[in-house]
Amino acid sequence: MAESGYPDVLALDGVGVRLGGRQVLCDVTFSLGKGEFTGIIGQNGAGKTTLLRVILGLLEPSGGRVLIDGEPLGGKNKASIGYVPQKLVIDPDMPLRARDVVSLGLDGYKLGFGFPSRQRRELVERALADVGAAGYADARVGELSGGEQQRVLIAHALISRPKLLLLDEPLANLDLRSEQEIVAVLGKLAREHEISVLLSAHDMNPLLGVMDKIVYIAGGRAASGATHEVVTSEGLTALYGHPVEVVRVHGRILVVAGD
Questions:
Q1: Mean pLDDT rounded to a whole number for the chain
Q2: What pTM, to 2 d.p., does this model score?
Q3: Which residue numbers delimit the ABC transporter domain (predicted)?
């Protein structure tokens, strides 16, 4: 239960996942309150995407439970979750504009059917403006840069006005400037729109300025809390099961294997 007295937007209680007879995740427990920004951090193959699939209801956990607003994850409350995949795979020659991709976010959404065209346009314009993509609304998506495509994907997920926004490695393959801009957009959505953001990444450093909590995954287990509480030499040594050293240099955090 959140400090406000209202249920957490998302709560995982002892979630475990077995795939092909192998324990991929074990006893994962954490929560997100309204408008909180949380990073899921771990190396490639640590189980970050698997965890997102569980929260989306695409993968049944072998143990534990997922709660949305205090209720078990189900068809009804899945509508309050927005999802942004890692990248948009599209033929550059396809005549699909940014606004078209965003508009598709209404299709299948419970309010999307029967929208008057004017209201539909207004919703699309608002979502594009919220992520700073209004300037290229009519550009072909295949011709946009990686950072611009990410903004369009976020707007696509945002148009249904979700309470919880899940993003799978949205910073992968972006240049430094685009990376910083996307993080700023997501931080603004969390602060000003009170959307709970859960973002997976292999590097925590771009998120340090906006992250309220961290979920650090290693060896199928997870540690969660404030960054300064979780990312310590002692804490990560226990999580990894072998010596790990955490070094802070010029505002960045480096995690290196110990002797």
A1: 90
A2: 0.91
A3: 10-244
